[in-house]
Amino acid sequence: MSEENIKKNLERARGGDRRALDRLLETVQDRLRRLAEGRMGPGLRAKVRTSDVLQSTYLDVVKSVERFEGDDEEAFVAWIARIMENNIRDKGKYFQARKRRDPEGPTRPLNEAEDVRTPTATPSVEAVRAEDLVLVSRALEGLVEDYRQVIILRMVEGRSHKEVGELLGRSEAATRMLLSRARAALALELDRVRNESG
What we know:
Blueprint: H1 3-14, H2 18-45, H3 50-64, H4 73-101, H5 123-141, H6 145-156, H7 161-168, H8 172-197
């Protein structure tokens, strides 16, 4: 992307244009992945996936892009790298605290999502799940087409990253990055839908 296009997209992204932000993130996604992998180190990578760190980072970027004050790619990457650094530090603290609580440690690598226990399926739990499905469906409708497609193909249909990439005409790595951004966008859209219906 040319310097002029980056400036235009940054301005639009600060104004709330999610497509402009997506174009910017796609431009720098390989650099961000390398930064995350280099910063995490093998110990943390054994416990949490790079894509989870990137997803948390993308979510924070979407929430705060209007406060970004730079006007070029280097400033944008540096700003995101600071956000990512905070996320990596938080994940490191989480696992350090967990290790202090359980010195024996887990018998296998875990990510934070695995710590969440699913409640027994009582009628009231089933009703909440049904309501959540309606909200998720409405949130999916509010996403841009690429995000909606990658979430449905990967998370609903359970296709591999390779299959999804082939269907969307993207590399497997690009598909993984798209899914990270799509999941972050879905989380924000789900919050918006919940607030509207609440």
